[in-house]
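Sequence in, structure out.
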Amino acid sequence: MIKVGVVGGTGYTGVELLRLLALHPGVQLEAVTSRGEAGTPVADLFPNLRGHVDLDFSEPDPERLAACELVFFATPNGIAMKMTESLLNAGVKVIDLAADFRLKDPALWEAWYGMPHACPGLLEEAVYGLPEVNRKSIADARLVANPGCYPTAVQLGFMPLLEYEGIDLSCLIADCKSGVSGAGRKAAVGTLLAETSESFKAYGVPGHRHLPEIRQGLETVSGQQVGLTFVPHLTPMIRGIHATLYLQLDDPDLDLQSLFEARYRDEPFVDVLPAGSHPETRSVKGANHCRLAVHRAPASNVVVVLSVIDNLVKGAAGQALQNMNIMFGLDEAAGLRGIALLP
């Protein structure tokens, strides 16, 4: 059994991580930390975990965490980077679900996140945890930077075409929609029911923090600079991301369906739907799957890719478990075989 600690278990990502860990056959949950809820039974705050998680929230005690084999950080940006180096020195592996180790350039991190990086020396070592790209590196990693939710949906949608040479990389468009849980479990006017219900809006158009992460990932795959327009939107639903992706294709004869099916044939959590399909966010609710469909716009060289994920699962906690399984040589799908919820 892998002895696991979770730092920051009170947010939406945290409770989703605990839900999945509680049912994982190879995990022993040792600690769930929260400074504000220390001493409170986890199941009192999250009644869905009653009978599954019997721990109390505790202070983030370095010695207790150092006794774990793996520590997940489900904390706000800027927390994991202050504790990770000491955990790694103690022989503990780390998966950070925030953004502390996603960007390789510390100056870029500081520009987008408004703080200097506490351990820039670890940025090069950190492995970006998108298994469909970095599975071999994840298997050998001590430190994994779990991808963001928008970046996961966008990169998986664009990837087969980025690996093909016949596209125009200067004008990629990612038009993305997210449920309100993506904003986190906090009191904020903009995510109140009365503010978001029966409404729809774009945000972060001048620049969203996921933009440099997406661009970095796309350029890593393509080996070239890309021109990317990324516009996120807030939709009146709790879970889900829908990414509609556009690009120009130079080869009018390319069989797009076969290209996507071949690329993801052996990927357990990417599902390429039949030609002509339109994936729905509800088809991945609660599941660690990305469902894709690829279309060619009529009388045009424009390709349209549709990509849907659950932002809390494949976009966060589920992908973190997938990375854990790879890091410890387990069945990659262990604890992640749940079927999406309908309705």
